[in-house]
Amino acid sequence: MTSSDRSQAVDVQRSYEIRTYGCQMNVHDSERLSGLLEGAGYVRAPAGADGDADVVVFNTCAVRENADNKLYGNLGRLAPMKTRRPGMQIAVGGCLAQKDRDTIVTRAPWVDVVFGTHNIGKLPVLLERARVQEEAQVEIAESLEAFPSTLPTRRESAYAAWVSISVGCNNTCTFCIVPALRGKEKDRRPGDILAEIEALVSEGVSEITLLGQNVNAYGSDIGDREAFSKLLRACGKIEGLERVRFTSPHPRDFTDDVIAAMAETPNVMPQLHMPLQSGSDTVLKAMRRSYRQERFLGIISKVRAAIPHAAISTDIIVGFPGETEEDFEQTLHTVREARFANAFTFQYSKRPGTPAATMDGQIPKAVVQARYERLVAVQEEISWDENKKQVGRTLDVMVAEGEGRKDGATHRLSGRAPDNRLVHFTKPDQEVRPGDVVTVEITYAAPHHLLAEGPAGAVRRTRAGDAWQKRQDAPAAKPAGVMLGLPQIGVPAPLPAAAAPACGIG
C-alpha cells in the first residue's frame, strides 16, 4: 500500500482492540486509551476479536514472571495476521514498554508504536505518525506529561468507575519495580478529583473507587498529611454518590484520621484492602516495608473496632529471598490473627530490575510451592468461616454485570454487598438492571461467595440502572462508553472486582 493509499484509508472508520495486563492502574489506563482512540475516530472491535482489528494495543505489566516472553509470544502470533491485513498497526504501552523501550522493536520489528506510562495521551498521534512515515515510533517520556484524568475516557461500566487520585509511588519496596516505571508520586488537586466524581455521578455512576499506587499517601505531594481523610469526607457530601471504595493503601500511611473518616462517612463502604506481604518482621525489613507485624495487626484491630462489619482483604508474597520456616510461620500467625475475608497470595518470583532479584537466599521452587499451598489452605478456611458469619444477614446488593458466570443456568443475578463480597441471589419477578439495588437475606456461604436462595426483597431502581439501560439502548454504531474528560475549574464491570494488585500496589 502506497502513502497515498494509506492517507485515503484513514478516512474509513478503523477498529481497535486493547489487551490489558496487570493491575487496576493498567485497567484504568486502558479506559483512557479507549477514550483517546474513540475521540480520534476509531471504533471498538467486537468482543473476542482476537487481533482481528485495525489497531491492536498491548497495555503491559512488567512485574509478572516472564512478562516479556508472554508479550513477545502474543506479538509473534499477530505477525502473520498483520502481513495478511494491510494497514494493520500494533502498539505496545504500559510498564514493560517503559522498561524495555527500544528492545521491543528490535525483537518484534513489526510493532508500529511503543509508548510509556507517562505519555499515553500521545497514542493517536504516534499511530498516525507511524502510518505516514512508515516506520516504528518509540516515544517514552521520563516524567508525567499530563495527569491521565485530563484525557477522555471510555468507561467500561455505566454505574461504577475508577477515579485516579495520584500516580507514582515514593516507596522503595525491594520486590517492586513500579516506582522506577511510574515515577514519584504526583497528586491531583482535590477540587479536580471531586469535579470528576460529580461529573460521573451526573452521568449516572453511583459507585466510585479512588485509585492510587499508594492511595492513602495522597497529600504527600501537596503538603497535607490529612488530605486523604478529607477527600473521603468530601465524597460523603456528593449527592447521588452511594458507594465509595479505595485501593490500595499502605500500612505506613494508614492513620487514625482515615479510620475515623471511613467510619463516619456513610457512603464509604465497610471494606479495606490492606497489603500485608509478610508477617515476619525480618522479611518485612528485607522488603523495605516500613511497618512490622505488631503495627499491622494494630491497624486491623482499630478498623474492626470502628467498623465491626468491615471485610478486610490483603496481599501476601510467599518465598521471598531469605524467608525461613520460622518467618513463614509468622505469616501464618498473622493471617490467623487478622482473619482476612480473602487474600491475594503470590509465590515470589524474580522481577528483573528489583533489588530482591539479586538477593542471596533465593528459595527453591518446591519449598515456595509447599508453603504457598499451606497458606492457601489456612486462608480458605478463614474465608469460609468469615463468610458463614454473613448467613442470616440482610444486605443491599448492587447488581453487577458479568459477575455470575452461572446466572443464566441458575436463574440468579449477582452483585456486590457493601463490603464488596460477591452475592448470588434469586432473580426477582420484576426487571432488575445492573446498577439497581436489591435487598436479600443470605442463606448460604461458600469461601468466595454468598448465596441468597429465598425470594428477593425490595428492588430499588436507581439512576445507575437508568444509565446502564441508556447505554444498552444507544445505537450500536455509536461508542458505547461514557466519554468524559476532566472539567476545567478554578485556575488550574460491573466495577471489576478488585484485581490482584499485580504491579505492587500497596
TrEMBL record:
Catalyzes the methylthiolation of N6-(dimethylallyl)adenosine (i(6)A), leading to the formation of 2-methylthio-N6-(dimethylallyl)adenosine (ms(2)i(6)A) at position 37 in tRNAs that read codons beginning with uridine. The lineage of its organism: Bacteria, Bacillati, Actinomycetota, Actinomycetes, Kitasatosporales. PANTHER family: CDK5 REGULATORY SUBUNIT-ASSOCIATED PROTEIN 1, MITOCHONDRIAL TRNA METHYLTHIOTRANSFERASE CDK5RAP1. This is tRNA-2-methylthio-N(6)-dimethylallyladenosine synthase. It catalyses: N(6)-dimethylallyladenosine(37) in tRNA + (sulfur carrier)-SH + AH2 + 2 S-adenosyl-L-methionine = 2-methylsulfanyl-N(6)-dimethylallyladenosine(37) in tRNA + (sulfur carrier)-H + 5'-deoxyadenosine + L-methionine + A + S-adenosyl-L-homocysteine + 2 H(+). CDD domains: Radical_SAM. It is found in: Cytoplasm. Belongs to the methylthiotransferase family. MiaB subfamily. [4Fe-4S] cluster 1 binds at residues 23, 61, 95. InterPro entries: Elp3/MiaA/NifB-like_rSAM, Methylthiotransferase, Methylthiotransferase_CS, Methylthiotransferase_N, Methylthiotransferase_N_sf, MiaB_methiolase, rSAM, rSAM_horseshoe. Coiled coil: none annotated. It comes from the Bacteria. Its cofactor is [4Fe-4S] cluster. Residues 155-386 form the Radical SAM core domain. NCBIfam families: miaB-methiolase (TIGR01574), MiaB/RimO family radical SAM methylthiotransferase (TIGR00089). Pfam families: Radical_SAM, UPF0004. The keyword tRNA processing applies. Residues 14-132 form the MTTase N-terminal domain. Residues 388-456 form the TRAM domain. Its EC number is 2.8.4.3. PROSITE patterns: MTTASE_N (PS51449), MTTASE_RADICAL (PS01278), RADICAL_SAM (PS51918), TRAM (PS50926).
